[in-house]
Write a structure and sequence with these properties.
Layout (H helix, E strand, L loop, with lengths): L5 E2 L3 H23 L4 H28 L9 E2 L11 H10 L7 H35 L7 H22 L4 H26 L4 E3 L1 H26 L42 H29 L6 H23 L4 H24 E3 L12 H4 L5
Parallel strand pairs: 1-2, 3-4
Helix pairs in contact: 1-2, 1-4, 2-4, 2-6, 2-10, 4-5, 5-6, 6-7, 6-10, 7-8, 7-10, 8-9, 9-10
């Protein structure tokens, strides 16, 4: 059955369900923060949205890993309905025709729950934006200028557009990968605002370490993009041994897998993508992983000597170890769902930890002791 890719009839109902989901954390937030000042409330709301967005990233990964991205083949609803309940007959027909196909009852619910949660995060960001502007006009003393949440609102709208394209363009690899990267960008924007409320660049750090931190962030972003490319092209199991791949250190590879603008499973010219192309995608990600692993370990070891950052450094090292273990288990244990989810969550947590360090640190004054890595005043601070 031919299904229109866009059907806006259930749009208001889907938005209403997202609003209801957003209402619960808003009520709990209001009860806990009713005696706090406006800046404290805005900080708490930003942290709440940051937490929910991190969870949304994991739900999005679960949707992708369970092959539920096309569980509802139209957008924003499911066969023109606001929930899979209203589309029961259409989903049943699709599932009967292809029992292991992209449309089943469980996959439809997974996909729609992801959309509801995404809508609720959008509603909360609207609340944050409007509220920040109101407080700014009244007090003019906020640590976060309202332009920040406004940019975040525009960003989440762009993210929603890419979510729609993910469905309507049938899991086009470049679109799905950009959808992931935009989600991480949203996390970074929210983290930056939360840090501005709690203290922006108060800890002194040597110029060399700050440069190293910047380089590691850049390497990690490249590696995350490569990991997204592996996942969206379903290339995780192209290598099923470790540390070798197909029994070789450098197996046969087809570099057409790195053509960015092409349909899933096809080359840019429309031909079916060879298995060796999936091998090349996997091998490049795995090779880059060793470089990023070494950079993270070196940075974490150096930061252990910076007293205000040693707790964060231990977290960084722990997350790096988690990434190594989950990445290996994805291969040797045949891509277990839990390990794959932890791998995505670990990458997101690594990025947030590095962003936290960058935003909380400033260049060390020339008169400070290089051995200490911090000014005396900064050394007295503890990681929050």
């Amino acid at each position: 059955m031919q299904v229109p890719l866009y059907n806006l009839e259930p749009l208001l109902e889907v938005m209403g369900l997202g609003l209801l989901l957003a209402g619960l954390p808003l009520v709990l937030f209001w009860r806990r923060q009713r005696h706090a000042s406006s800046p404290q409330r805005l900080k708490a709301l930003t942290l709440l949205i940051l937490t929910l967005t991190f969870e949304l990233v994991l739900v999005g990964a679960f949707t992708r890993l369970t092959d539920s991205g096309l569980g509802c083949p139209d957008w924003p609803g499911c066969y023109g309905q606001a929930s899979p309940l209203g589309a029961h007959s259409e989903i049943s027909a699709a599932q009967q025709a292809m029992p292991t196909g992209p449309v089943t009852h469980s996959k439809a619910w997974i996909e729609m729950i992801h959309r509801y949660l995404a809508t609720s995060v959008g509603v909360l960001i609207i609340v944050l934006t409007v509220w920040t502007w109101r407080v700014w006009r009244r007090e003019r003393q906020l640590a976060v200028h309202p332009v920040w949440p406004t940019i975040t609102l525009v960003w989440v709208c762009l993210q929603g557009a890419f979510g729609a394209l993910t469905v309507t363009m049938k899991l086009f690899p470049a679109i799905v990968t950009l959808h992931l990267l935009l989600a991480l960008g949203l996390l970074v924007l929210l983290m930056a605002q939360a840090i501005r409320y709690s203290g922006w660049r108060e800890i002194a750090m040597s110029g060399g370490l700050r440069l190293g931190l910047k380089v590691v962030v850049a390497l990690l972003l490249v590696q995350i993009a490569l990991g997204g490319w592996v996942s969206t092209n379903y290339a995780v199991m192209a290598c099923q041994d470790f540390p070798l791949c197909q029994g070789s250190w450098w197996p046969q590879m087809d570099w057409r897998g790195f053509a960015l603008w092409r349909e899933l499973g096809h080359t840019a010219g429309g031909e079916l993508l060879a298995f060796s192309a999936l091998v090349s995608i996997h091998v490049v990600h795995r090779t880059m992983a060793w470089l990023v692993l070494a950079a993270l370990l070196l940075l974490g070891w150096q930061l252990l000597r910076v007293q205000p950052l040693n707790k964060a450094a231990r977290l960084l090292l722990g997350l790096t170890l988690l990434q190594l273990l989950t990445g290996m288990s994805n291969v040797v244990l045949d891509w277990p769902l839990l390990a794959a989810l932890l791998h995505t969550g670990g990458a997101s947590a690594l990025l947030l930890t590095l962003v936290w360090m960058w935003a909380r640190t400033r260049p060390q004054a020339a008169s400070s002791s290089p051995a200490a890595g911090t000014t005396p005043a900064a050394s007295a601070k503890s990681v929050e």
